[in-house]
Write a structure and sequence with these properties.
This protein is an all-beta fold. It has one helix spanning 82-85, and strands spanning 4-8, 38-41, 57-62, 94-99, 118-124, 130-132, 144-147, 161-168, 177-181, 184-192, 198-217, 223-242, 252-262, 272-283, 287-295, 309-317, 320-324, 342-344.
Length: 345
């Protein structure tokens, strides 16, 4: 597996000082500062659905718990660990705070105390398909919900990620937010071996897909997904894709449309009753146009990994399209080597 994680630096603060368009971030110190996002690759094997943050993300920040059964902040417990104070803590540092991709935001604030321990929960994208369920005065670890849009266009499905940083202090320096993907991807490609003229007139992926998932966090910052609900959708992958062989004897490979980003799990994988419908025209001895439906059958023990795009391959051999699904595990690739997916072929 190749898991991409975004590492975002953060300097935290509490004192309100003004808006990002007038605040001089470069000359100030001791204020929350989100560094521009950077991408690192930790393992080898597949790719993440997106490679960088484009837009803004949201943050919830915690530090001081309530004192006893009151709603007064307990300044004596600022140094306590998250596991000891989360049941009495609310997001009083940040609440659904929008952070721009360049790290700037409105209303910079300072650290309360260099020894206090802070915990942060981030989500991407901001104000999109992830909803924060936790209220501004709600105590306990935050919860969120991701809801998949009811669209037939794969490009309209936004990616989704969460990140945490638990028990960090001002003395830690820049705070790392390690973003992790909540979705997996499916894309289709065609490999044409022998048809000089092959046009994919239309390609559709239909089925019953997971609609939403509740996101919760344990005391160490790990997230848990609990899926709920389904929706029937037919995704329009592409139209009029020319997959004709250019040089006789050389196979041609074409991707059919954008990847479809989905909530996935080990039970239903990418969904139930999945079918790939292909209408294609090829010209050999005769011109033939027909529609073929392919049911999705998975290898034994297959379970999608969050943040991976899986490629299903159609092979055109002897005047017909064949969809084969033999997953090739442990196939490493380097940054400069074109295809970066896990492929069923």
């Amino acid at each position: 597996m190749k898991a991409y994680k975004l590492y975002i630096s953060v300097l935290m603060a509490l004192l309100l000082v003004g808006c990002s368009d007038t605040f001089d971030w470069e000359s100030q110190s001791g204020y929350i500062r989100f560094a521009p996002t950077g991408l690192t690759v930790e393992e080898v094997g597949s790719r993440a659905p997106i490679e960088e943050i484009d837009g803004s993300f949201g943050v919830l920040g915690y530090c001081l718990p309530y004192y006893g059964n009151t709603t007064d902040l307990d300044y004596n417990s600022g140094t306590a660990y998250w596991s000891d104070k989360y049941t009495r803590s609310r997001p009083h540092i940040f609440y659904k705070k929008e952070i721009n991709a360049d790290g700037t935001y409105s209303s910079a604030v300072k650290w309360l105390n260099s020894r206090y321990r802070y915990s942060f929960f981030a989500y991407y994208p901001f104000n999109s398909n992830i909803t924060v369920n936790t209220g501004q005065n709600t105590i306990g670890s935050p919860t969120m919900t991701i809801t998949m849009p009811n669209t037939t266009t794969p490009a309209d499905i936004p990616d989704a990620m969460v990140a945490t940083a638990i028990d960090v202090t001002e003395l830690t320096g820049n705070v790392q937010l390690n973003f992790q993907h909540l979705l997996s991807g499916v894309q289709i490609r065609i490999r044409n071996y022998d048809s000089e003229s092959l046009i994919i007139n239309s390609a559709k992926l239909s089925g019953t897909f997971i609609k939403s998932a509740n996101i919760s966090f344990d005391t160490e910052g790990n997230f848990l997904l609990q899926h709920s609900g389904t929706q029937n959708i037919t995704y329009n992958l592409a139209e009029n894709v020319d997959a004709s062989v250019v040089n006789k004897g050389e196979a041609i490979v074409k991707y059919i449309g954008d990847p479809v980003m989905l909530l996935a799990n080990s039970n239903d994988r990418f969904g139930t009753n999945l079918k790939l419908s292909i209408n294609y025209t090829h010209k050999g001895a005769n011109t033939i146009s027909k529609t073929v439906e392919y049911p999705f059958n998975y290898p034994t023990g297959f379970s999608p990994i969050l943040g991976n795009i899986y490629t299903f391959e159609l092979q055109f051999i002897n005047n017909s399209l064949l969809l084969s699904m033999v997953v090739q595990n442990e196939e490493p690739w380097q940054e400069d080597e074109g295809d970066k997916d896990i492929t069923f072929e």
